[in-house]
Amino acid sequence: MNTQPDSRLDPRLDGLEVYLVGGAVRDARLGWPVGDRDWVVVGTTPESMRQRGFKSVGRDFPVFLHPDSHEEYALARTERKQGHGYTGFEVHASPDVTLEADLARRDFTINAMAETPDGELIDPYGGAADLAVGQLKHVSAAFVEDPLRVLRAARFLARYRKLGFTIAAETQALMGQLVASGEMRHLVAERVWTETHKALGEADPGAYFETLDDCGALTELMPPLATPALADVIARLGRVPDESTTSQQALWRWARLGEHLEDVEQARLNDAVKAPNAYRDAMRLASLSRRLRRQLDGERPAAESGRAEAIMTWLDAIDAWRRPERVAPLLALIAHDDGELADDLALAWRLAAQILPQALLDDGFRGPELGKELSRRREETVREALEGR
Does the pTM of the predicted model rise above 0.70? Predict the structure, then answer.
């Protein structure tokens, strides 16, 4: 499949040695839709690119945006480890850097393939063969220089494990070596969250956390999850509200990961990766819902008497009256674990929401007494409905 630009139709590319690289080549060969396309340009200079109308956007290395397509064109480069973390590299970009040298710095062989303008595959590191057998394998021993690659290995497995992919044994060994070196501690929390968030939206997010646990990285990066209960936690990732967007799916998967944790450990987990507030809130709401299930199942001593009172306390705790949009996804979440409770909650919410403050104002209630009477009437209505089922 030829996914290359045609220089005859684009004079800005005339005379340039341009190659399609990375994910676009990989996904096309898997038969997957090709999203963003990345290009490598060999044998030219930043000045030449700017003269052709390309806009420089790379801060750490020469990357240019095509003025019309806005796709990224990077000059071929090599990297040399100079410090700690995934940013501790010295970049060398010049016209003498070959395509093969540029591909050598990639993380996995399946990401180190390129295509010529006529669609010919250039595959110096065996990426096509690894793609065919479903193997994530490092390009070179330089893999251990970048701790981010541990996260990327886990994330790619989350994407492709359902296709039968595995991580090569020798790559797993390097991942363990990288963790043991202490390099993981140099990853900033925001970068860990970026990779984790992407993994939460993949087909098999459990593979991400299992992989990090297997190599010891989970203990370094998200210690509250690195417990013997991880397998049970991962099993919950498939029981989330049926949302239409990947971002909502990721939100509730994150909530499921930490719903069993006490408040202090939830905060510790969220702080470790600097999770956004929406994800912290979702985890807290899922935790409140889990506690309600356990309370009504008798797994922990009930703080309230009666099912109706417990349900009303839950509605208050999730701030349902001011944030009614929270109710539906939480009911869907609970339905995966306890359909009967979800039905009771839906009934309670429907009936209680019909009792509005205006009716009590008409009856003469004011101030604190208004709130008390509103709660009493709602709970009484719910109790009667539950008793009459």
Answer: yes
